[in-house]
Design brief:
alpha/beta; two-stranded antiparallel ribbon; Rossmann fold; about 45% helix; 8 strands; six-stranded mixed sheet; 6 helices
């Protein structure tokens, strides 16, 4: 089973989550940061596709939206997993997840995950630091990355893979 993970990571939190997913996944895994990696790949070459990103200013990264739009019809034919790294939890996190991914993809996805998030103030530019301080009152690196949610997500996918 070949799995493609496409994601965007601005300050490294989503990349941390992807590293854990990749490590715990069964089968062959290719992880591609759409923001940084210059890897050529074809979605059709993979049995399973995982798409993930994080919330910035209330929205998932533009490169994730573009990838979904470009490959939408093909994604509808794939085994799919979707995840989001976001600071919020509960209803707010669910609303952000729903806004990040099209309804049809959410419905067919075999695993959906909300992995928590981080404010890595040390990696932010001046404007980002000021916004985070004003909106969330956070001035130092802070994490609520949920490794249990990541493991649960991977276990759902591995269980699906085992039955193929």
């Amino acid at each position: 089973m070949k799995t493609l993970i496409v994601y965007c990571s601005s300050h490294g939190t989503t990349e941390k989550a992807v590293q854990l997913v990749s490590e715990w996944m069964e089968g062959e895994v290719l992880a591609v940061d759409l923001k940084r990696d210059k890897i050529t790949f074809e979605v059709r070459d993979f049995d399973f596709v995982i798409i993930g990103g994080s919330i910035h200013a209330g929205s998932i990264q533009r490169k994730i939206k573009h990838f979904i739009a470009k490959h939408y019809d093909e994604l509808l034919t794939k085994k799919l997993g979707l995840f989001l790294c976001c600071w919020h939890d509960g209803q707010t996190a669910l609303e952000q997840f729903d806004a990040a991914f099209p309804e049809e993809l959410r419905k067919i996805s075999m695993a959906n995950g909300i992995f928590g998030g981080e404010f890595l103030v040390s990696k932010m530019n001046f404007i980002e630091r000021q916004i985070v301080k004003k909106v969330n009152g956070i001035t130092v690196d802070t994490s609520n990355l949920d490794t249990t949610a990541i493991m649960t997500f991977v276990m759902k996918i591995n269980a699906t893979i085992a039955h193929v």
